[in-house]
């Protein structure tokens, strides 16, 4: 996942840009927040598979123990506090009101353990991100860039600090940062065969053995034909269905540097034999075998929840209590006003003019006068 960072210097945008940006922000907020409960503390659910989280710098300032609170607690228990938005984290249990909060008791679920020992924390909980440990947004950063979240450590990194080229359609791909790749070397084997091809990690053969035309020298090709020692061959034969062993046996390698981007459904291609499951478990990476763990899946669930809630909108419920004629009148009136407002705003957008409060006030005054005239005609015609 990624976040866009705008340049700090002043710049001019059109009304169309503002409307489109507002719509994108609304969709993003809906995707993130609709997947979490805004009314009830998530603590009773235990270590939630994925949820929106916040850190409170008012209650846990730098130097204190790191802590995270759920969406509902950010509203009910930390209103008016300075909060860091952490986007989403996996397998986290709400800390609100536990031992780390010396002067605050959770209003929604006061009976909590002193500490959630399985929670994982990072410098994100103190409002800094990336290898550069800078805040987001960063008022001192003059570079227009985007931040992308590593699916393993869940830190957010600037695109320019990933050590590779950020591919197109990055919002549909998952990224593992270089640090996490190096902590789990077997991931480099998967990267050689599964990662997005135009990511920097994929374009070089290890040790720079490509010639200027991208061909592997003959002596290296010959090495591939050399018979493997019997001990190595026997290890491969021990686990004949291990996909990772099969990929390792191919002997293809790439330069092991930079972040790695993975295409959709790449997790389904990872080996799930007993040996690999144990390896992933020991590295705390078992979630990589779970395709429903992805942020994209969580966001889609949030959007679906939002759509279901909109199906029970208060205005729609009110319409249900009106007769058919009244419903049609309200719907036509709403559509007419929406169309006129769109035309009104488009004139400003086409001329590159700024919409002022007076312009908006004038528009609705015109709508009000128009409505009174229509009501008057309706009154005298009856």
TrEMBL record:
Any one GO molecular-function label of the UniProt entry: zinc ion binding
GO cellular component terms attached to this protein's record: cytoplasm
SMART domains from the UniProt entry: ZnF_UBR1
Enzyme Commission numbers on file: 2.3.2.27
Catalytic activity from the UniProt record: S-ubiquitinyl-[E2 ubiquitin-conjugating enzyme]-L-cysteine + [acceptor protein]-L-lysine = [E2 ubiquitin-conjugating enzyme]-L-cysteine + N(6)-ubiquitinyl-[acceptor protein]-L-lysine
Tagged with keyword Heme: no
Metabolic or biological pathway, per its Swiss-Prot or TrEMBL entry: Protein modification; protein ubiquitination
Keyword terms: Isopeptide bond, Metal-binding, Phosphoprotein, Transferase, Ubl conjugation, Ubl conjugation pathway, Zinc, Zinc-finger
InterPro entries on file: UBR7, UBR7-like_UBR-box, Znf_FYVE_PHD, Znf_RING/FYVE/PHD, Znf_UBR
Coiled coil regions, renumbered to chain: none
Protein name: Putative E3 ubiquitin-protein ligase UBR7
Species assigned in the record: Amphiprion ocellaris
Lineage: Eukaryota, Metazoa, Chordata, Craniata, Vertebrata
